[in-house]
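Aim 2 progress. For Universal stress protein family, the working sequence is reproduced below.
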Amino acid sequence: MSEERTVVLVVANETLTGAELIEAVRRRNEESPIRAVVVAPVNEPRAGYVVYEDSRRAAAGRRLDSTVEALRAAGIPAHGGVFHAGPLDAVKDILAQEHIDEIIVSTHPAATSGWLRRNLVDEIRKVAGERPLEHVVADVAARTGAANVLVVANETVLGRPLLDRIRARAREGQASFLIVSPQSDAHTAEHPEAERRLRAALSELRAEGIEAHGQIAHPDPYTAAMQAIHDERIDEVIVSTFPGERSGWLRRDLVGRLRSDAKVPVEHVIVEAAQLQEVAA
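Predicted C-alpha cells for this construct:
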C-alpha cells in the first residue's frame, strides 16, 4: 500500500532555483513524506502590455523545470506549471482546483522583493486559511551574482550607444534586461511604432544570447520605471534619452528623479538622432 503524502504548494518565480527554497522543501519532506506542486507565476505589467511575453514564460519555465528535477532527484514527487497571473491569483486558482495541505512561498529579500513590497505573502496567507504557510527568503542575486537591469527607453531604444551599453553590461556579469518603453500616447490602445522599435531591439539582443524582455508601459517614464521597480526585483537602471533640450525626459529631470527615488544605481545613456537604427516596417 502506497504511503499517503502531504500535498505542499510551492510558489516562486525568480527564486525557484534558490538553494534556500530547495532545502526548505527537502527539510519539510524529512518531517513526513510530501508531494510538491510547484507554481511559477508570471506577472503582467500594471499598465501597458508585454512584448515577447513568450520569453518571460520561457525563463520561468526553465527555472521551474530545474526545481522540479531537483526535488525529484531528492525523492520528492513533484510537478508544476507556469501561470500567466500574479502569485495571489495563481494560488487562488490552484486552491480551487487541487487539494493542498500546506504552502511554501519563496521571495527575494525584503529590500529587493516586489512580492513583499506588495504584501503578497500576507495576502496569500489570508487565502490559505488554516493551511500552514512557510515564507522562505532566497538571496539568489547574492549567491549567483546575477542582476536584473531595467532599461527605460522609447525613441532611442534602437540607438547604437544604448544597445552597445547593454552588450557591455552583459559581458560584465550575468544579467537579465527588462526594457520598458513608455507609451507615446496614453489615449490610444495600440502603439505600433513603439512596439516595432522594441521588438527590433529585443530580437537583436536575444540573437546574441542576451536575456532580454520588454514591455510597452505607462506613458510617463518616471511612473513606468517606478512601477517596474516596485513590482520586480530591479538591481540597476539604465535610462536612454536624446541629448539636452531635445529630450522631454531630461527637461522633466527624469534621470535626477530616478537617482533620488529608485534606491538603485541609475546610469544615463545619450543617443544622438544620427545613431538610431532604422526599423523595418
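The chain has a mean pLDDT of 88. This observation will guide construct design in the next reporting period.
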